[in-house]
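Re: How this chain folds, sequence and tokenised backbone to follow
Notation: Tokens come from a learned vocabulary of local backbone shapes, not from coordinates.
Start of record: The labelled sequence and token lines come straight after this line.
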Amino acid sequence: MTRFSGKRLQFAALLVLTLLVSTGCVAARMGVSWPSVSLVGDNQYIMVAHAFQQGPTFLVQIDPADGSEVKLRDSEGKVRVDPETGEARSWEILEGAGQNIHTAPLLVEENILLAAGYNNRFVEIDYATARIDSPNGIEISGQPVADFVVDEDAERIYVGYNSANLEAFDLDTLDLLWTFKTGSGVWAKPLLHENVLYVTSMDHFLYAVDTADGSLIWKLDVEGAAAASPLLVNDRLYVGTFARTILEVTLDGEQTAAYTAENWVWGAPVSDGDTIYAADLSGFTYALSSPGLEEQWKVQAAPEGIRPSPLLLEDALVVVSRNGKVAWLNPATGTEFQTRQVDNEILSELLYVPSGKTQREPLVVVTGVKANPMMVAFTASDGQRVWEYSR
């Protein structure tokens, strides 16, 4: 059995769920999945993981400079060529040999990626060759559908599962350390703060868990499923729920305020330190005070549901709805000052790409369910369409 050595960094997981956002409600539809996107490596390439309803699961890297697939290179930096076709080879991993990868891994060592298969296994990927070194990997007890959490000392990793439970693993050996049981799935990345994990669950509870041994510190009934991570601002936790609420909770587990939204709040709230921003599945976006959750403004920014979290930029709040409308709002007033349209169903989180080695301007990247165009990049400042990527 392969053992992974070294200190681990963060890993982004693909949510493969059985619910689909619809206008004003959520309707069940089996087989729905949406891409997971993240940034990886020194060049900040975009890593995409997706499984189309008809077609294989894949991982692929995209260059944010132009939306092209990143090419595989040899030790001398030359592009690798397929000996049969003579074409340049892209950095790509297709599902095969039972890996069933539904995650977008990040670089955890100089040349190692760590991923989790939806077949209950960790797998190790050689970053230079885009090759899974040991397809059998290491077995785990569930299917991760949310980001992993790495502790402050980079010694442990915490993993939530689709059906239930949260587990802690030693980062050097990936040995199981403890299991914390929940009544239903952990669909969001837990929040780690001062050796306590704050965990939302689909079982309607917010948990505080001791990282040392996985023991319960407290739990709070939030009266609805919670599918997004808690937000910590001003020593308060902010949680969106399927009970159409945004809650304010102290670090001791006392609920101190609640705001009623128009519909389910699926994405995590975001904040600039003074204001909490959140969106719901009726297309409304909210600005609320912190602390207190007093309404500052409320606008219906989209005609259909907003599943992802808002993206807070220096002078704009960007939201994207299921029907592909991308709106830039004034954070102070909620006034819409520019919009763009993407011809796709949008359920994935918005990705912010800072200026870097390959592109000069920061980008807002929108990723859809369909293959064409699967991904569209806009300049963060003025929303200019920069490139598209189709699968």
Observations:
- Residues 1-139 form one domain.
- The longest strand covers residues 45-51.
